[in-house]
Specification:
Length: 338
């Protein structure tokens, strides 16, 4: 069963689950009624009888049915931070249903002194503008060495001002409207607080309806919600650091642990201190300060991600033996070995 609010992710996961030999029931968000109908037609054509997309039950009802039935071998849930907390509390107390939860990210990119600033800015921009900033592995907090801070900010500002904002149906468009109506409100609140606390908005900073302008903010500090909470929009939160130890401390100062990028000399050594284990492993409690997906040199593109998942409140597995965290491969998790 896959309750999901991202239809494209759901379609990929549906395919993985069916290929693994499962019958699948899906519940999309209430915004996805028309999408659900279209997906049902697609899966009926290529996977007849294997998938049922339900819109007749609310998300909480769907979850309750799955957890109470006793016959669901795997539950796959996408959701926000609070949902993850509530779901894990319930699973700890009453259920052995194997559950994979994928939650938010607040992905740092550490740019070390000596990094190629022009190329780094281009790579960060390409990763951030994909899906208009609506990728959970897109870089959000840009932690940059003070010696190259101003140059990187200047190049990010130039890229944001040059971005093609417009009709998402046009192939040339880089930034379209936000999918979720919650995101513009979250971004507005984060930016308003950042301004009040002394951060500088170099470009963008406007929210109109579902549209968030490509934005660069510098002077961001760890106590700001712009630093701590997922933004999920085309907003760069830039933080300056003077030492590698300071950068590491700020990168680890998060409730999440999905993706992290390190760029510059000796990036590989620094990345190894942030990377968790190669595959999801048993933990007693949620682990913080590690990342499931760590890239060196540039942020990962979608095609680079072979396993997915992280630490903290970004995701976990509940199953036989208890709680697991780290990167995972859904087809493996959905396969029952003899």
């Amino acid at each position: 069963m896959v309750p999901s609010n991202m239809a494209t992710a759901a379609l990929l996961d549906i395919a993985r689950l069916v290929v693994s030999g499962n019958r699948v029931r899906v519940r999309l968000s209430k915004r996805g009624v028309r999408t659900g109908s279209l997906l049902q037609d697609i899966v009926d054509e290529v996977m007849p009888g294997q998938v049922t997309i339900r819109q007749d039950a609310s998300g909480p009802e769907f979850l309750a049915d799955a957890l109470d039935s006793g016959s669901v071998p795997l539950l796959m849930v996408y959701g926000g931070e609070e949902m993850g907390i509530e779901l894990l509390t319930r699973l700890r107390g009453t259920s052995n249903t194997r559950t994979v939860f994928e939650g938010p990210g607040k992905d740092p990119a550490i740019v070390l002194e000596g990094a190629l600033v022009q190329q780094t800015a281009a790579d960060l921009t390409a990763a951030k503008f994909a899906n208009s900033g609506q990728r959970c592995v897109a870089p959000e907090n840009i932690l940059v060495a003070s010696a190259i801070h101003d140059e990187l900010v200047e190049r990010l500002v130039r890229a944001c001002r040059d971005a093609n904002v417009g009709d998402p149906n046009e192939s040339s468009t880089q930034i379209g409207p936000m999918v979720s109506p919650k995101v513009p409100r979250i971004v507005r609140d984060q930016l308003d607080e950042a301004r009040r606390l002394g951060a500088e908005v170099h470009c963008g900073g406007t929210v109109e309806g579902q549209w968030v302008a490509p934005t660069v903010v510098s002077g961001v500090r760890p106590e700001m919600t712009l630093f701590q909470d997922e933004t999920f929009a085309p907003v760069f939160a830039v933080v300056s650091f003077d030492s590698v130890d300071e950068a590491l401390a700020m990168a680890r100062d998060t409730r999440f642990g999905l993706a992290c990028t390190v760029v510059g000399p000796c990036a590989g050594d620094l990345a190894s201190t942030l990377r968790g284990e190669e595959y999801a492993h048993r933990v007693d409690q949620l682990l913080f300060g590690r990342f499931g997906i760590v890239s060196v040199g540039r942020p990962l593109a979608d095609e680079d991600v072979s396993v997915f998942g992280g630490y903290g409140r970004s995701g976990w597995i509940w199953g036989e033996g208890g709680l697991y965290q780290g990167p995972k491969f859904l087809m493996r998790e959905a396969t029952v070995l003899p």
